TrEMBL record, chain A:
Keywords: ATP-binding, Nucleotide-binding, Transport. It comes from Domibacillus epiphyticus. One of its GO terms (molecular function) is ATP binding. This is Zinc ABC transporter ATP-binding protein. SUPFAM superfamilies: P-loop containing nucleoside triphosphate hydrolases. Residues 7-242 form the ABC transporter domain. CDD domains: ABC_Metallic_Cations (cd03235). Coiled coil: none annotated. Belongs to the ABC transporter superfamily. It comes from the Bacteria.
TrEMBL record, chain B:
The chain crosses the membrane at residues 14-34, 39-58, 70-86, 98-121, 141-159, 180-197, 228-248, 254-271. It comes from the Bacteria. Keywords: Membrane, Transmembrane, Transmembrane helix, Transport. It is a multi-pass membrane protein. The keyword Aminoacyl-tRNA synthetase does not apply. CDD domains: TM_ABC_iron-siderophores_like. Pfam families: ABC-3. This is Metal ABC transporter permease. Gene3D superfamilies: ABC transporter involved in vitamin B12 uptake, BtuC. InterPro entries: ABC_BtuC-like, ABC_TroCD. It is found in: Cell membrane; Membrane. The keyword Membrane applies.
Length: 254, 276
């Protein structure tokens, strides 16, 4: 069966000032996949995510979301996003779990409108799906890192998106909870049919969970199903991990 | 005093204006504090001072300006100042707080020039600096009412957008809400509230009415809505207690309101400690 492509990146390059961060990236995410996007620090993973989310404007190449060119794409609540927790929120903020998750519905409810009963129920449902319902009325700052990250997942899925994008979601989550965290992601992928795009620098923990892998280090070095990835030999694998210069030499050989 | 309020128009003006400011200043203050923009309120109040001083000077120098309430000059300067701060914050991306001392000194500097031009300090100016129970005119009261309607309506209609922008700016942008426009509306509102609040609390102390009640509320509130309600409750208490004591003890209300807020804050902090 031909699977629909929900994210389609064609020949995208990106530079900050003079520094090239991404070069000729081609990446397609099929519907229902669980894609692990791996690469060392500074490999352009976060930049690629920002491009997909429309936070950075693409000047070279094109991005399609659900088959629609990105600049014409309006259905942003179809895409849930969980950022690196440490970067973007201040832990002392006086907001309850309920209030935080309701934030995920703002776009859907629309400007100038206020949430109603069905939106409140959607919030409770999302909080339940991540196993945080006992904490609904608690301040977000009083929770542990792992619990907070679950709350942010609830916020990302409350609008019922078909794609969920996660940027290093387990940073700051203790190893005990990481396993149950991935268990929950698998549930979202398998049971709720959500397409997941997970960014991480650690391929070890995700290798038995994802269906597809993309290895990024300025260039996209490998992109394919997990089965193919496992068949790569060691030498090829070492290429994937951050030897961009050597790959440049290969280009000269052509 | 209750009788006096019914009797004297100036007391009606002061108490009504105070009661309204006691609501809208902490209401906006809640967003300002959680966004770590507390000092911006301070910078804007100093810019407002230069606007008021310009208004007072123009009123003297150009007879046709004499009838214009200096408050409106204050508002215009305050809005201009807020836009400049935004501009400066994007110029100094990595030192955003630099915008505050730049605007603060700029505001005071320009203010001092206009004050000198207008032949130095007078009682009118004193009341703008520290607030006044007797100097609030009907015109001031109407300005406060008009601004409060705009503020309440905007916060009511844009509550969830303002909340997300405050909680997590990156997420707000990613989820596609018009964060620039919402932030713009917010900063204009802040400028307006500062301009009208200073009639009661005074320029030098106006930012405290936006931050101290919120600081107290944050110690004990569960959630952001509760933070807002408690902030308004504390702010209103401080304004009313402050105005009463200012009237009876013949003090400038700016001082009594701020001292009341500080006492409230200390009580809350100690009560919270006791409870843990």
């Amino acid at each position: 069966m031909e699977q629909k492509t929900v994210i389609n990146i064609r020949d995208v390059s990106f530079r900050y000032d003079r520094e090239n961060v991404l070069e000729h990236i081609n990446l397609s995410v099929p519907q229902g996949a669980f894609v692990g996007l791996v690469g060392p620090n500074g490999s352009g993973k976060s930049t690629l995510l920002k491009i997909i989310l429309g936070l950075l404007k693409v000047k070279e190449g094109k991005v399609e979301l659900f088959g629609i060119p990105q600049h014409k794409f309006k259905d942003w609540d179809q895409i849930g996003f969980v950022s690196q927790k440490a970067n973007s929120f201040n832990t002392g903020f006086p907001a309850t779990v309920f209030e935080v998750v309701m934030g995920g519905l703002a776009k859907k409810i629309g400007i100038f409108r206020r949430p109603r009963q069905n939106e409140r129920e959607a919030v409770e449902k999302a909080v339940k799906a991540v196993g945080m319902e006992p904490y609904l009325k608690r301040n977000i700052g009083d929770l542990s890192g792992g619990q907070q990250q679950r709350v942010f997942i609830a916020r990302a899925i409350v609008s019922n998106p078909s794609i969920l994008i996660l940027d290093e979601p387990t940073v700051g989550v203790d190893s005990q909870n990481v396993e149950s965290f991935y268990h929950m992601l698998t549930y979202l992928n398998k049971e709720l049919g959500m397409t997941l795009l997970l960014v991480t620098h650690d391929i070890g923990t995700i290798s038995d969970k994802v269906t597809h892998v993309a290895c990024l280090n300025k260039y996209l070095h490998f992109h394919g199903s997990m089965k193919k990835f496992i068949q790569l030999d060691e030498q090829e694998l070492s290429h994937l991990y951050g030897h961009g210069i050597r790959l440049l030499d290969h280009h000269h050989d052509h | 005093m209750i009788e006096a309020i019914f009797q004297y128009e100036f007391l009606q003006n002061a108490f009504l204006a105070g009661a309204i400011i006691g609501i809208i200043a902490p209401l906006l203050g809640a967003f300002i504090v959680v966004r770590r923009l507390s000092l911006i309120a301070d910078a804007l109040s100093h810019v407002t001072l230069s606007g008021i001083a310009a208004g007072l000077y123009l009123g003297q120098a150009v007879p046709s300006f004499g009838a214009v309430n200096p408050l409106y000059f204050g508002m215009i300067f305050s809005i201009g100042g807020s836009l400049l701060i935004e501009r400066l914050r994007s110029v100094y991306k990595h030192y955003q707080e630099l915008a505050i001392p730049i605007m603060m000194s700029g505001g005071i500097g320009a203010g001092v020039i206009f004050i000198s031009l207008a032949d130095g300090f007078n009682t009118d100016l004193f009341s703008y600096l520290f607030g006044s129970v007797s100097a609030v005119s009907r015109g001031d009261l109407f300005a406060v009412m008009a601004i409060s309607v705009i503020v309440l309506l905007t916060v009511f209609l844009l509550y969830k957008e303002l909340f997300i922008l405050s909680f997590d700016e990156e997420y707000a942008k990613a989820s596609g809400i018009p964060s620039k426009a919402v932030h713009f509306a917010f900063i204009i509102l802040t400028a307006l509230v500062i301009a009208v609040s200073m009639r009661i609390v005074g320029i030098l102390l106006v930012s405290s009415l936006m931050t101290l009640p919120v600081a107290a509320a944050m110690r004990i509130a569960k959630g952001f809505k509760q933070t807002i309600w408690l902030s308004v409750l504390f702010g209103e208490t401080a304004v009313l207690v402050g105005l009463f004591s200012a009237f009876y003890l013949d003090l400038a209300p700016g001082g009594t309101i701020v001292v009341t807020s500080i006492i409230l804050l200390l009580v809350i902090i100690m009560w919270k400690k006791e409870r843990n």
